[in-house]
Amino acid sequence: MATTRQLVLRDEKGLSLVLVAIILFSACAVMALVVDISYRHIAKNELQKAADAAALAGAAEFINPMLPPVPGEPLVAVPLAEQDLLDARTQAVRFALENVATKIPVQIFNSGGSELTPDNDVRVGRWSGGSFTATLDPALVNAIQVRTRRTADAKGGQGEVALFLSKFTGWDSMPVSAVAVAGLPFGMSRSFAFCNAIDPTTLSQSLCGLSEPRVMTAQQGAPHETSFAWTSLLSQDTSARTVRDFICQETADDNACNQEVYTTNGENLSILRDFESVFYNPTYDARHKEITDGVVTAWWLVVPITDDCPPGAQGTDADPKWVTQFAWVRVRAVCTGTGGTGCGGHNAPPNACDAYPSQTMVVDRVNCFPCSAFPANTLGRTARLLD
Question: Any residues with CB less than 8 A from the CB of 210 and at least 6 apart, and which?
């Protein structure tokens, strides 16, 4: 007959086996959850990439041809029409399908509506103030929103993302979705800024309303009405490398209205050389350039007007400048007057700078507007992801 001590030991062994079983089951459940959450993260990333690609493809359809130029007026594109909105939606659906998530082609649906519903994953609208608002008015549209998903209500039988191990705990699938917004919001060029003031020592005409060539310089001490400064807009990094990257990479514009911008202090030949190089490159932002026989003769840019003069003055804390105006500016020539070629692979053609001093820029049209008149129906130069 078993003693009391033996009975106690036998009970303890049985309890230990139960505890071990519980611990093993819990460990397996946690491991399964970790594996499946990681798998869901992969699916999320793949869906996000598909949404980004689809949104960018759709936004590219907003890039219309330019209207015939009006002498002295900025180059503008053909206004968007309902067909452009339809083409943008169609391209988004097509490009989404060229991507896969969990080895399944990403399928999105377009019903033409202005809301995201089980039957609609694409809508067009306006990006303003950091947010997207759906609208079907072509005069207001500047962006497109795309949703990719693997959810229970998704059409096409794609459903939720199936799980590997968690199904043994009764959790068979997880919903996954992603949203992207891309567009061409109107903004200012990350290149140069100026201030609209008359220097009391010269009493020359201010830049706003300019209708004849004027030589501009970033040299310190130059009169306000002939002074400009290189700007990184909202970025506080105003190093030459950063400004050159903005110029060379055709970085999308940014809306700096009613905000502070940051500018460089004084001349920088390397920046000017790159600006000259992209100015004379006929393929760089060609839609906003006047080109004759393959030679660039003018470039229209939207630039900020700083409230403080001179625009490149530096004080403490990077000395940001407040912007309450912007201008359409036509640049006629950029002249470094030195050897070397910038990032755009081009230099000023022969005789283009014969009448101008080196290390200068020449503008001959400046149309200024208050930020309150920021145009609602003018698109930016480059399609980019917004959200």
Answer: 363, 364, 365, 366
